Amino acid sequence: EKPSFVVDSLIPTGLSLFCGSQKIGKSWLMLKLCLCVSQGIPLWDMPTMEGDVLYLCLEDTFCRIQDRLFRLTDEASGRLHFAVASCKLSDGLIVQLEDYLKDYPDSRLIVIDTLQKVRAVGGDKFSYASDYEIVTKLKAFSDEYGVCLLVVHHTRKMESSDSFDMISGTNGLLGAADGAFVMQKEKRTDNKAVLEV
Questions:
Q1: Quick count: other Cβ atoms within 10 Å of Cβ 16?
Q2: Is the dihedral of CA 182, 23, 93, 169 positive or negative?
């Protein structure tokens, strides 16, 4: 089947990377996206495909997520699910995600925030082959189940004229993914950001 869009003309099913520098607002945007999809309300005037959503907010606590959620809405959908811990990709993450989908087969979106939290520790984890293998495993899962898997990752500090060259790691990450988003701000304190797709 052709990919469908979780957010019309912006975010398709399959695996996409969502990248930006630290503390730029990636997690806030992911929470807003998850909220919109779980309620079937538009994101930036773009329709969403309503369904269950799993947000693996692996750098946060439930208390922090709840505080952020209350800042965005008074009524969150029962279709929005959170986890602050998971297995590593090498130790059972895919099985955990499959078990989640057995309970919530109408899921449209899974966000992993961040890639670093599910990577295997040790070995040559920053090689092209390792990066490609990680994304290939996650992509195979998203393709098999027809869900959008959005993986949050960081950009490197060194500037580049091509925003996608700023994705931290090797070209293996972007090479194996279906697509990528890079969010940038001129100043970290700006309220406006540019999202390149």
A1: 22
A2: positive
Which pLDDT tens digit goes with each residue over 80-120? Answer: 999 999 999 999 999 999 999 999 999 999 999 989 999 87
Backbone angles phi, psi at 154, to 5 degrees: -100, 160
List the 194-196 sheet strands across, edge first.
80-83, 52-57, 107-113, 148-154, 14-20, 179-184, 194-196
Structure tokens at 51: 């369904």
- Chain centre distance of CA 60: 14
What distance in Å separates the CA atoms of residue 119 and residue 166, rounded to the nearest whole number? 19
Beta bridge partners of 80: 53
Kindly report, residue by residue over 8-31, the tens digit of the pLDDT: 999 999 999 999 988 888 999 999
User: Which structure tokens are listed for 139?
Assistant: 């992509």
C-beta of residue 188 within 8 angstroms of C-beta of residue 55: no
CA distance 105 to 156: 36
Q: At which residue do the structure tokens 């390792």 appear?
A: 130
- Measured CA to CA, the distance from residue 25 to residue 154 in angstroms comes to 12
